[in-house]
């Protein structure tokens, strides 16, 4: 039986600090680690930390991730706030959560 992503509970990865500005926009602070990043930093003067500003939807979703709410509960909050602008909600939210997890910005509690 395959797990349903909507039942998963995401939480922030403590290794990814973030800030929230006055407008509610979240900026993630991602350390560029590893051999290839180190080479790029030395040779091409790439930054040691990348600052990734999330857009309005992403910032709202990020702020709903608390290690308690499931993806389904977050979807309900997104629908309540953005209405039809969020559609197709489940496809978009599912892909967004998969991307956050693939990049190690979030972890699954369950």
Characterize the structure shown.
With 110 residues, the protein is α+β, with helices and mostly antiparallel strands. 41% of the residues lie in helices and 18% in strands. The protein contains four helices and five strands, in the order E-E-E-H-E-H-H-H-E. It has helices spanning 35-44, 56-64, 71-82, 89-102, and strands spanning 10-12, 18-20, 26-31, 49-53, 106-108. A three-stranded antiparallel β-sheet has the order 2-3-4, with helices on one face. A hairpin with a 5-residue loop joins strand 2 (18-20) and strand 3. Helix 2 crosses helix 3. The two termini are 16 Å apart.
Query: Count of DSSP helices?
Result: 4
The assigned structural class equals alpha+beta
In which range does the helix fraction lie? 40-55%
**Largest sheet: number of strands, sense, barrel closure:** 3 strands, antiparallel
Number of strands: 5
Strand order of the largest sheet: 2-3-4
Instruction: Give the CA-based shape.
Output: globular
Write the layout of secondary structure elements.
Layout lengths: L9 E3 L5 E3 L5 E6 L3 H10 L4 E5 L2 H9 L6 H12 L6 H14 L3 E3 L2
Antiparallel strand pairs: 1-5, 2-3, 3-4
Keywords summarizing the entry:
110 residues, alpha+beta, three-stranded antiparallel beta sheet, 4 helices, 5 strands, 41% helix
Compose a concise summary of this entry.
The protein has four helices and five strands, in the order E-E-E-H-E-H-H-H-E. The chain has helices at about 35-45, 55-65, 70-80, 90-100; strands spanning about 10, 20, 25-30, 50-55, 105-110.
